[in-house]
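FAQ: What does the model actually see?

It sees only this:
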Amino acid sequence: MPSSDIDLMVIGEVDMDALDRAIDSIEEELSRTVNYTLFDVEEWRERVRQGHSFVADVLTHDKIFLIGDEDDLSALGTGGLIEPYQVPLEEIRDLLDVARRDVKTAEELMNIDLDWAPIVAYNAALQAGLAFMYAKGTGPEVLIGTRL
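And it is asked to produce this:
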């Protein structure tokens, strides 16, 4: 067999006998070795949360999807922490106003209080990030019965 292997990652529940038969068939047809890694959904999510090096490598490099796409893979990694959510445009504008205000305040604090400046700037980033999520039609999962 040629030296160029095919690496395949499968996430989900599969019939192992069927997978092995399919892999054997592909290897024979292509005259190439197929190495596969199998994760159940919870194991994949846990490795994403832990920042596992293999997962980071998979997420940051080019892939060819046989089933699903990049959005499906991203959704698997969130563990349900991001969900579809619609907010009025005015709420998004309000979040961006708060972010702008906090950036301005952080800039002013740079000359007054170097302890508080990065905290205020961080809040600006959080507000802007939330506004971006809302503008894209998503939002953080409900936490302790209320939305962020």
